[in-house]
Design brief:
Mean pLDDT: 84
Order of helices and strands: EHEEEEEEEEEHE
Number of domains: 1
Helix content: under 10%
Strand content: over 45%
Number of helices: 2
């Protein structure tokens, strides 16, 4: 089981929504010389079908009838207000940007930041959480024939195919690439409709 607010992430949204027709939102792709980014937003409404007060497990049923069980961690305030039949509105945002840092000598590194906020006592159960991971990697190899760039990060080395020839030409061995991954989720609970 996953924690309700904190790190529930795309897996929970995917479990409740796929096929894709059940979700709303969209993807945005941006591109500039030496950078590329993509962001996707998913919004959905699920219904609480079961609550185990002892374990704080909450079962949600998505718009396609799929169910997923989550643990409402301590950061989920006003847990006792949750009722079977309540509607849970979830908005999930995921974004990734890659930026070429020409001539940079920044160390190969990984940093992570996270934050969680919940409803105040007496308010309807709600919360928001997010995290951002930044990785600086070094370009250690380039293959012009396949347009593959090899990046050495703090934990592993990966090969990335650069589909845009103009972007590939900007990259040189020894350059740094900064990857920023951001995910955020907001959850609000509405009482069951009478």
């Amino acid at each position: 089981m996953r924690t309700l607010i904190g790190n529930i992430g795309f897996a929970v949204v995917a479990a409740l929504t796929f096929p894709a027709a059940a979700q709303t939102g969209g993807a945005v792709v941006t591109k500039a010389p030496g950078s590329v980014g993509v962001a996707e937003t998913v919004k959905l409404t699920a219904t609480i079908t079961a609550i185990d007060k002892a374990t704080r497990a909450v079962t949600l049923k998505g718009p396609q009838g799929k169910e997923v069980s989550l643990i409402a961690g301590d950061q989920v305030k006003n847990f006792d207000q949750l009722k079977v039949g309540d509607q849970v509105n979830i908005q999930y945002i995921e974004a990734l940007t890659l930026e070429l840092k020409k001539g940079s000598t920044a160390p190969v590194a990984r940093t992570e930041q996270a934050a969680v906020a919940g409803a105040k006592p007496g308010e309807s159960p709600a919360g928001a959480g997010g995290r951002q991971v930044k990785i600086t990697a070094e370009v250690v190899a380039l293959d012009a024939n396949t347009q593959v760039v090899t990046l050495r990060g703090p934990q592993r080395t990966v090969d990335l195919k650069v589909k845009d020839p103009a972007q590939f030409k900007l990259i040189a061995k020894g350059d740094r690439v900064e990857a920023t991954y951001t995910e955020a989720m907001a959850v609000a609970v509405e009482p069951a409709k009478k």
